[in-house]
Amino acid sequence: MAKIVAGIPAFNAEQTIAKQIVHCLKWVDQVVVIDDGSVDDTSLIASKLGADVIKHKRNLGKGAALRDLINYARTANATLVTLDADGQHNPDDIPTLTRPIMNDEAEIVIAGRLNANVPKGRRIGGRALDYATSALTGGETVDSQSGFRAYSEKALAHISASEFGMGADSEILIKARQAGLRIAQVPVTMSYIGPKTSTHNPMYHWLDVFFSLVKFVSIRHPLLFYGGFSAIMFLIATVFGVQTLDYYTRWGRVVTNLALVSIAAGILGFLSFFTGVILFTLITLIRDEQFR
User: What CATH topology corresponds to 4-219?
Assistant: First the structure.
């Protein structure tokens, strides 16, 4: 049986980290804790309980923690299970997550938060991000923001997290789909009762992920992304420009507001168009260089 490593990103989690580690050790060979700049005893407790601890001098974000966990598991030639330190993920569900990997049914398994006690605001925002991520990956809709996941050795060889923030979860799924990895989802029950289950405001989380997705689209399809915006700006410039000329023809006066909107939209349209062309050229050159 392949070695299994449980990876736990943690930030000021001294109240909950011990329980997570102890329960994880029932199902995995090793626990590694990424202490992401904690100022409490998170690292001390984790090391005392036998976990390997990688400590960041300051808070770098979830993406940085996932990057360290992926590198750790690669070096250990192990299957990686990631879960939160706050207790909302139940370590007893680890066998459920790893089973599809052990049976060669998937390379990545996501714990879908299908229980009814997910806060309403988080559930609505999460589903919107799920559909956005699904649209970019071209795959089935999964719980893209669930941090409770299992990654096979094969998956770890193909994925990475360049994002530092909360957008890393979606980034990994996008790269996994591009690599042709199989992604499965299994239902689990998560707890949102007890200590605060997130260090970020839900709105901050959603915006962080949303702008990460926008960045991925702009890099993957620069002509489509910037060209589409450029076309919208040119359309606005044309509409307001025609209105300006019409008013001038009728009354012999220039409506300053209409003219300024037309000029500003035209400038934005040209800037967006040339940005898309430049990015497309640079990305093409970089990709060509990689295949030489």
Answer: Spore Coat Polysaccharide Biosynthesis Protein SpsA; Chain A (3.90.550)
Q: What does the pLDDT profile of the chain (292 residues) look like in tens digits?
A: 579 999 999 999 999 999 999 999 999 999 999 999 999 999 999 999 999 999 999 998 888 899 999 999 999 999 999 999 998 899 999 999 999 999 999 999 999 866 545 555 555 455 555 555 555 555 565 677 788 999 999 999 988 877 655 677 878 888 888 888 999 999 887 765 555 545 555 565 556 556 566 666 676 778 777 888 899 999 999 999 999 999 888 888 888 898 999 999 999 999 998 888 888 788 677 655 654 5
Angstrom distance (rounded) from CA 263 to CA 70: 49
What is the DSSP track for 102-131?
HTTS-SEEEEEE-STTS-HHHHHHHHHHHH
Tokens representing 238? 């044309």
CA distances (Å), origin 68, targets 56, 61, 207:
10, 11, 24
| Alpha-helix runs per DSSP H in 84-221 | 94-102, 120-137, 153-156, 168-178, 202-220
242: left (phi over 0), alpha (psi -120 to 50) or beta: alpha
